Amino acid sequence: MPRxxxxxxxxxxxxxxxxxxxxxxxxGDAGNPRKVLIAGEHSEFKENVVSRVIExxxxxxxxxxxxGLDQLQEQETEQxxxxxxxxxxxxxxLDERVTTYLSKDPMNPKTILFFTRGxxxxxxxxxxxxxxxxxxxxxxxxxxxxxxxxxxxxxxxKRF
Length: 160
Description:
There is one protein chain. The protein has a single domain (20-158), classed as Flavodoxin domain (Rossmann fold). 32% of the residues lie in helices and 26% in strands. The protein has helices at 2-16, 44-57, 96-104, 145-158; strands at 25-27, 34-40, 62-68, 82-90, 93-94, 111-117, 134-139. Strands 1, 2, 3, 4, 5, 6 and 7 form a 7-stranded mixed sheet that branches. 28% of the residues are buried.
């Protein structure tokens, strides 16, 4: 029995203990008409996709503010025309910080979710997150950066 408990604790630490936030960053002029808040979890793949989105849209008419998912709850979001949540789908669940945020306004038309998961295979219905917003998912593969960035660019442009 103690081995099972120890194995369970190790699994929890591995799955959830390694979560880190994206580093705070701003791109563009805060006076620009198109403002996007990006709240995310750090991983090289996720940050490459976000960087490509910002590069594609540019900063002439766009303003991007990146924060960690841990800062999302206390962030004022009214000034933003789009909110991009960047997280992982682990052990059959979305990051709890995302689900907590979405529970406050589950159909917010400004919100877009980009989440990574272990495979590109279609997600079984029983595992699909119960969300009412636009979402893009991807395995964390470098060959997917461009395609996922393009999908997110289209969704962000629709918000303005």
